[in-house]
Amino acid sequence: MARCTAPVRGHRTASGAAACPVCGSRYSGYSSYSNYSTQYSSYGGSSGSRSSGGGSIRNRKPRWSSPGSGAYYTPAEIRTLTPIRENVEKRSSISDLRDVFLCHAWDDRKDAAKQLHDLLETRGVSVWFSEKDVLLGSSLLREIDKGLAKSRVGIVLVTPSFLSRIKAEGIAEKELSALLARDLLVPIVHNTTFEELREVSPLLGSRSGLSTLEEPMLNVALKLAELVKVEEQPS
Questions:
Q1: Residue 60 lies in a domain
Q2: Which residues, 6+ apart, have CB-to-CB distance to 169 below 8 Å?
Q3: Same domain, 140 and 211
Q4: Are residue 83 and residue 199 in the same domain, yes or no?
Q5: Full residue range of the structural domain in which residue 135 is found
Q6: Are residues 104 and 16 in the same domain?
Q7: How far apart are alpha carbons 131 and 142 in whole angstroms?
């Protein structure tokens, strides 16, 4: 009669149990589950972090995405971005507006914020960016006010530095207050999580957005470009 090997080898792992002549049948499905978990993770599945995707597979496209686009969305991302897209379309007739106002921490101006700015502009998105739009000697707060008023959508780049600035009530905190008053705000979480954001700013953290923990900044920029670009209708 076959005997359980646990008294000798122990069953500290599923593979050990699977090798046991007695217990192995109980774990016959482990290999299939492991393969499924790996596939699920490769599609952006998440077991702990809250995001716009909510761990769903990205296999859909919103109505504003072009047929040839390489960007795919989760159902939750489409639900999150649709109201913002509708507002963008309503404001598309207003001239002299930038596509995006980029809110970021000062410490990120030459790193993550610059990377996102460059990726967006490469895709034809006009971006209000303090590094190029605030002239030397001008009032930063005044220029921010004008930039917000002259932009269709606000993007908040949430990084560890940004969270520190919010806690210190710096310039980023003032920009955020103005952006939260508008229904045209997309948080982009980078090198942090929505859980950490909610601890610092519950109001901003309650909004869904995009996360570079789930897909590269390149993909995030592509989705933002699709969100704000409106094709001109022929007259």
A1: no
A2: none
A3: yes
A4: yes
A5: 75-228
A6: no
A7: 15
Per-residue pLDDT of the chain (235 residues; tens, 9 = 90+): 555 544 444 444 444 555 565 555 443 333 333 333 333 333 333 333 344 444 578 889 999 998 888 899 999 999 999 999 998 998 888 888 999 999 888 899 999 999 999 999 999 999 999 888 876 666 656 777 777 888 889 898 999 998 988 887 765 666 667 677 666 789 999 999 999 999 988 888 888 899 999 999 999 999 999 999 987 654 4
Which helix (DSSP H) or strand (DSSP E) does residue 12 occupy?
Answer: none
Distance between CA 26 and CA 189 in Å, rounded? 41
Which CATH number covers residue 100? 3.40.50.10140
- Which residues are tagged catalytic? 175
Q: What is the dihedral of CA 20, 24, 27, 28, to 10 degrees?
A: 140
Q: Is residue 48 part of a domain?
A: no
Pairwise CA distance, residues 156 & 176, whole Å: 8
Same-domain status, 35 and 82: no
Rounded CA separation 224/190 (Å): 15
